[in-house]
């Protein structure tokens, strides 16, 4: 156990302060749209195309994002609360200074995305695709992530607090100052060899022992 110095650098959380917002009344999203200081409340964006759009100082509350195309969209200084959807396409998107609260998402595509100062609090996300993404100063707090895919991603100053990870894939990922110690459940399906750069608790290390042994080809047996 390391004492007397910081074990891992803490993530810098977003500090989003929204201005007075104007209700969104334009109907639907458009590619490369520019949305500034707007409130989207209980809007159904299912199947719509907002690829390349920019959301600045916005609040999305209770919106449906089933199969919504937001490829290369930019979400800046915004709060997303209670959004839901299956198959949302956020590939190569940029999320900077964003609060994502109580989301219910499945199969969301964030591969190649850039996440910087993002807080994911509460909710459940199934089959989150973050392959090749860059995560810096990201906190997953009190949420459930089922089979998240971090393959080839770069994670720096990322924290998992009271968060459940089930079947996580770290294949080819690069981790630096990743804090897993306060994860409520840590289950790695693949990529245990990529944990260099992460910090786990003693209890988690014992739980990971069978996976680590399998990765090393180490056989464990009692002496005769």
From TrEMBL:
One Pfam family per UniProt: Pentapeptide
The organism's place on the tree of life at top rank: Bacteria
Protein name: Pentapeptide repeat-containing protein
Organism of provenance: Streptomyces caeni
């Amino acid at each position: 156990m390391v004492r007397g110095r910081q074990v891992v650098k803490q993530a810098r959380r977003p500090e989003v302060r929204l201005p007075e917002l104007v209700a969104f009344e334009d109907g639907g999203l458009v590619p490369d749209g520019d949305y500034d200081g707007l409130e989207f409340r209980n809007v159904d964006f299912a199947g719509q195309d907002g690829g390349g759009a920019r959301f600045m100082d916005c609040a999305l509350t209770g919106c449906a994002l089933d199969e919504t195309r937001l490829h290369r969209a930019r979400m800046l200084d915004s709060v997303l609360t209670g959004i839901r959807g299956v198959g949302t396409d956020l590939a190569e998107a940029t999320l900077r200074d964003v609060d994502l609260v109580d989301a219910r998402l499945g199969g969301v595509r964030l591969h190649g995305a850039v996440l910087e100062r993002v807080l994911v609090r509460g909710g459940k996300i199934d089959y989150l695709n973050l392959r090749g993404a860059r995560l810096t100063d990201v906190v997953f707090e009190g949420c459930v992530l089922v089979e998240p895919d971090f393959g080839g991603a770069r994670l720096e100053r990322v924290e998992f607090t009271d968060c459940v990870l089930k079947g996580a894939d770290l294949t080819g990922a690069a981790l630096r100052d990743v804090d897993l110690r306060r994860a409520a459940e840590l289950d790695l399906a693949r990529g245990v060899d990529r944990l260099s750069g992460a910090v786990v608790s003693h209890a988690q290390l014992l739980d990971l022992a069978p996976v680590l042994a399998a990765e090393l080809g180490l056989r464990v047996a009692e002496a005769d």
